[in-house]
Amino acid sequence: MWDTTDGAKSYGYYYPPLNKEYQGPEDEQPPLLVKGFAVLDVNYRGSSGYGREYRDALKKKWGISDIEDCCSGAQFLADTGKADPARLLIDGGSAGGFAALAALTFHKVFSAGTSFYGISDLVTLAMDTHKFESRYLDTLIGPYPQDEEIYKARSPINHTGQLDCALALFQGSEDKVCPPDQSIKMYEAVRDKGRPVVYKEFE
Fold first, then answer.
1. CA 61 to chain centre
2. At CA 94, angle to CA 92 and CA 97, rounded to 5?
3. Which segment of the chain is annotated as a signal peptide (predicted)?
4. Which H helix or E strand runs over 99?
5. φ, ψ (nearest 5 deg) of residue 200
């Protein structure tokens, strides 16, 4: 648990680096930990298991509170000597990919990041998402198109000039929930601004 800069508390699981010389009997180690990386799995606001108030704290705040929790969690590890502040990385898939893109775009905490089939444009998501989740964003952000300006303001694709670190994007070519266009447009926008970026699509 750590304090966030907006006066809340957030939660997560910290996994320190492992001793890669250890050989058994349980010698299959998670690849990041054995390479000397520590990992923080953030259960940001909106997650269950921490009470109703915490679960409801993401309502109308998606792209704000969750990003704050990720950034403040990484900063907490750096401040307490558990991570190198100059080598903090972030990654995530789908909504977590959106969190990674937003953290890299709107904050200066991480040195690089990866988005797996992430969301870069909330307006496009609102217009094109599948029927099952078509009203989901009303709760997380607000009704569309009434709150279109909020959607635009929280979309990383509209603020790529603020992103100044390395970015990798991975995408499935047939993804219907987070279509390739979300990653492709982000890649093109970041590339056109001369930032280090790579895009890989899988069939």
1. 14
2. 35
3. none
4. helix 95-106
5. -130, 125
